[in-house]
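Recap slide: Retropepsin-like aspartic endopeptidase domain-containing protein, sequence and predicted structure.
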Amino acid sequence: MLKYILLLALIFLTGCHSIFDTALEKKIDEQSRQTQLLLTKVAQLEAAQKENNKLISDYLSLTKNELQQNKQKKELLSQQLPTKKQVIGQIETIYLNPPKINLPARIDTGATSSSIHAINIQPFERNGKDWIKFDIVYEDKTYHVETKLIKYIKVVQSSTKTAQKRAVVELELTMGKIVQNTLFTVTDRSHMSYPVLIGRNALKDLLVVDVAKKNTLTPSNKKEP
């Protein structure tokens, strides 16, 4: 009897061991399958990433080439198309602000700087800064100006060959359609025919002077103060 019991126990344990081995094998197979699926996904993602990198590289290369071509086209056009400059005469009516008036001016390409006729020129200090005040007299009217003093320069007059110290101010200059801030020396020009001299610093690359012409610009219609 005991022999049969032991035999049955042995058979039972053998069966349990077999069942355990089968379950373990299934689990290992499932993990192996999941690992293989994961590796496949990783390979697919890497392939997709390589394709995206290639597309991005191709796009950047194309964009760079297009930008370079556009730049070359613009440079070629700028070389082919001449810059259109405004032509003015040797005598023009200009507008100055301050004092917000039209004044006749002589345009002189031989002069380095621009100059304006003024009297009662007095430097002074305002809020710790250097300022200057002066009067402009034109057509029996006096226009008082107070503005910042930019600097002093020495100007050598061709007639006397002597250096003269002049104050420099910045005024808004309007000539036709061109409006720009321009440096002017302030001095007594009462012996000159015109109260304003426009030199090369105001002409720059914007204006061309035709000495055979006069008064080509339409005076500004800005109102006086």
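The domain at 86-209 is CATH 2.40.70.10 (Cathepsin D, subunit A; domain 1).
The longest helix spans residues 2-80.
(End of recap.)
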